[in-house]
Every structure is written in structure tokens, then in C-alpha cells.
Amino acid sequence: MRILVVEDHRDLAETLAAGLRREGMAVDVVLDGTAALERTAVNRYEVVVLDRDLPGLHGDEVCQTLITEGYPARVLMLTAAATIEDRVEGLTSGADDYLPKPFAFAELVARIRALSRRSQPALPPVLCHADLKLDPGKRTALRAGTRLDLSPKEFAVLELLLAAGGRVVSAEELLERAWDEAADPFTNTVKVTVSRLRRKLGDPPLIETVAQAGYRI
């Protein structure tokens, strides 16, 4: 899952990004509304975590612009104002969900995951193939009943491949959706991650390489 955090308080933005990355998400951070629209113009995000009270271009304007342009991401709006009127205004601007500050980080993660499920065709809560079971909510992966020790990126790649339902997923798509903007598009990091994942999954092999196309399960 790739997330954009739009928050003008740098320390809070970096704290949120660090926590979300520990949850296995790819996170980009911007500090104002103009930069948010620049990023969404070139990157695909499942969820935009948007501070409503941005300086300059207000969060409501950012949200309305995304809707007008048909951007597919779900918007989770954050604000220090917690009155009913504020919440109604935020949701009226087009936000999919609204979370007043201060908030519990666990609730933020749960809301992001819920919104991500709504940004794509509905998936079962546990993804299964043969004797492999992956639970994104609990961050667990089992094969033949044995828990797999996966890194966050390995888990993200496996989740994307399982969610594809047999469709071939290109290395470019994996890089775009499981890594953030700091990833080098010319690197072999996807190939290396898939190789490590194959070893951890064991036999019989589950991940197929489709020549000049990508990978599938």
C-alpha cells in the first residue's frame, strides 16, 4: 500500500511516516497542499492522509481538486478542530473519512487499511493460495501452518501478488506500489526481494516469473 502524508508540521509528518512504514506501507511526505497536488499528478496512491488546516492551499481545496480530477485515492482528513460542524465540512469537501487530532496511532492505521480496501475491488480479509495464508490486518503469513518471517517489503510484495488473483504483476507496478519515492527505478531491488521471498516460501514454488512481463502466483 502506498500512502501520501500531507502535514505541515514536519516532525509530526515524519513521525507518522516512520510509524506507517513499520506497518509495511510505502509512504511519501509533503508539507503543503501545492506539493500534494504535484505528487498526486505523477504518483498513484491508495490513500492520502490530508491535514485539513494547511497553510496556503487549504486541505479542503486539495481534496476538492482530487475529486474534480477523478483521482482514485481515498482521502483521510486530519484536523485539530473536533466540532461536529468541522467534521461535516471536512466530509462535505469530499473526504472519505475524518480523524480529529490528537488520535491513537492504531486507529489511524486501522482507518487507512479500511480505506485502502475501498480503493480497489473487495478482497477477503485473509488472502489464500494453496497452503499459503496471508492476513494483512494481523501482519501474518503462514505456509502449511508455519509462520513466515518476512520483511515489510517481502510482505508487501506477497500481498500484492496474492491480491492480483493470478494476474501478472510487473516489476514496475511492484516498485510503484510497495516502495516510496526514494526507490531508484533502475535498481534491481524488486528482483532481489522476490528472490528472498521465494526462498522463504520454500517448496513447491509459488511465484512464477513471466518473461518480460513480471511475476504471478
Relevant terms:
217 residues, alpha/beta, 4-stranded antiparallel beta sheet, 8 helices, elongated
Report on this model:
By secondary structure, the protein is α/β, with parallel strands linked by helices. The protein is 41% helix and 20% strand. The protein is built from 8 helices and 11 strands. The strands form 3 sheets. Strands 2-1-3-4-5 form a 5-stranded parallel β-sheet, sandwiched between helices. The chain has a 4-stranded antiparallel β-sheet with strand order 6-7-8-9, covered by helices on one side. It has a two-stranded antiparallel sheet with strand order 10-11. It is elongated.
- Summed over residues and divided by their number, the pLDDT gives a mean of 88
How many strand units?
Answer: 11
Strand order of the largest sheet: 2-1-3-4-5
Radius of gyration, taken over Cα atoms and rounded to an integer in Å: 18 Å
Dominant shape: elongated
Q: In short, what is this structure?
A:
This protein has 217 residues and is an alpha/beta fold. The protein has helices at 10-22, 33-42, 59-68, 84-92, 105-118, 152-163, 171-178, 189-201, and strands spanning 2-6, 26-30, 47-51, 74-79, 97-100, 127-129, 132-135, 140-143, 146-147, 208-210, 214-216. Helix 3 (59-68) links the parallel strand 3 (47-51) and strand 4 (74-79).
